[in-house]
Amino acid sequence: VWPGASGRWCRTRNIGANWLTATGPTSIAGYWVTAAGSSKLWRITCTLTEEVEGTRIGEMLDWMVKVVTPNGGMPRFNDGGQSDPGTGYYRLHQLARMLGNREYAFATRNTRTPLRLWDDASYEPKEPDFTSVLLPDSGIAVMRDSWEETSAYAALDFGPHGGGHGHCDKGNFVLYADGEAWVIDSRYGWKKAEDHNTIVVDGENQQKGRGTLLKWETDDDHDAVAVYHDLYPAVRHYRSMYHERGGPFVVVDRMVPNDEAEHSYESRLYILGETAREGDCYVTARGDKGIAVRIGPGQWSAGEVADADFQYRSDCRKPERFPVYVVRWDCEGAGEQWLVTVLVPYTGQKAEVGEVSVEPQGTVSIVSFALNGEEKRYAVPTPAGAGG
Hints:
This protein is mainly beta. The protein is built from 5 helices and 22 strands. β3 (133-135) and β4 (140-144) form a beta hairpin.
């Protein structure tokens, strides 16, 4: 067992290449790394550096590399939302030199206070040999175009609830692009489904539990993940995310009731920065960078935009905070309901997104829309999963 920074104990059987320790927050994966330099654990670590790689502790460090955001932090799922995401990577940065691990060095090159240790060429950062990656035990799918700081990046959470720090947030995701955070997780202690980028059914909270992976695929052209959960009493929620490398993100939601009654649905999106409706799109801009969002099909209400009444840093290395806005779309009805959300990061010219349609075809759904006058058509995996 290893003592965590909070004083709790994390058993090594709960630590691995794809695992998030059972206490909940993403930042827990860096428990022992984020411990203060004077702590017992840090002193122990300094004496065990020769034995770390290839062990479960080494796998936990590898986990931090796999999920690192383009600006050098973590996707702040669960109660990781208030912590400084740069702290754990600062420690990992120190270990990179101690272990001579060049991939750790690369993952931590954008930390808030990076050390200047790379005078020896043998320790120069080395880009990992993967980009997008699935962490099935943690229940996190990571999509990234490249390892550049301006790369598009998204992480979708479908994993176990965890302990007291866990949130009811299955299907929640975060999104970065052009060196900025755009779609963010909620604050520390905001644990209800309505506090996250997911679907709320009948105004209720999700039950505690985990989602199920249905599909994962990645290649040089695109990434796609499909998951589902049955944590609402009367409705199963299926969510797929599709990303064209260098292009838009498409999220497809399918809600399947277990009965013939009418149900109400609300989709929420927490966006970092002042957000306004422009025609049928919702646009957030910071300087010449921004993100445009549009939904379909038409049975969903026009989105309601509101100030979420808290602020967030887009970059853990900078003190500037931005207001968080929440966009809410509503729908009511009996039977299956579908929702498609198109998210387009842009630099320079504002992205123009046309009407969005979806056509289910077996285990995929064809999503169509115009982007800056060009027709886009994507075959998004939408397998039925358990229960049809």
